[in-house]
Amino acid sequence: MTQPRIIENPAELEALAGGCFVPTMGGLHDGHLSLIREAARRQGPVVTSIFVNPTQFAPDEDFDAYPRPLDRDVRLAGEAGTDVVYFPSESCLYPEGRAASKTTAAGLSVPGVAKHPQLEDAGRPHFFGGVCLVVTRLLEQIRPSATVFGEKDWQQLQVIRAMVAGDAKFDGIEVIAGPIVRESDGLAMSSRNAYIPPAHRPRARGLSLALDAAENATTPEEAETLMRSTLETHRLEVEYAVIRDSESLMPVTDLSRPTRAIITATLDFEVGSVRLLDNRAMPLVG
Ligand code: PAF
To answer: Considering the entire predicted model, what is its pTM?
Structure first.
């Protein structure tokens, strides 16, 4: 295995256009590595970006504390099949400066699927503006033929699919979805799982157990009640635990269309908290 090349200057990406691109914020775990392996099965070079994107964090969020184990990330990315790690500086992606880039993000046409008042937008109204902005800039610089996103951030995946499908400048880019990878206790892998103190770890199982419980329901309302009560039993603060149309994320009116259970809950402990996400295809046969 050769170490991947590290590129910091976007001009050097020129020769890599047409490859497969995996965007990450680093802190790589098996979930990311499965996306890189998926990219490596495709034609062309695999480019993995590592950039902790300031525009998708609110001032009170964990931007400064976000894990940045660069040497380990580069090694793991290479072992999984990355040819090039793109490690841009903030000024490469936001030449207008961080403060001004927030205005650009606000002016960006973010797809409607980002704007559900009961989903991510409720607690993190800044989030999808920042994600769409950074992904737009990365796709413009890397110009891949395909890009891989994880299903764990289900709403993000739908937002990116809609953004890429809705803008001619992204023509020719395929968005590939990578399945959720889970820890042995069922918890969906996330860079933020490292924040959970071991004594509180059993409570985090509440998310996958809530999805298991919803499998027994025959209506969206029943599934939502079962998820909520399982989360509360594990002392998780529920942000949302809903059944939605898989693609539009609208409340379900037509059970013949694919439906998805989507959960976000916070695990509070003595000296902090971790926000946890999970989801699962949830066909309800009423
Ligand atoms: O899912 C993530 O890690 C981030 O939101 C992404 C897509 C890399 C954009 O910063």
So the answer is: 0.96
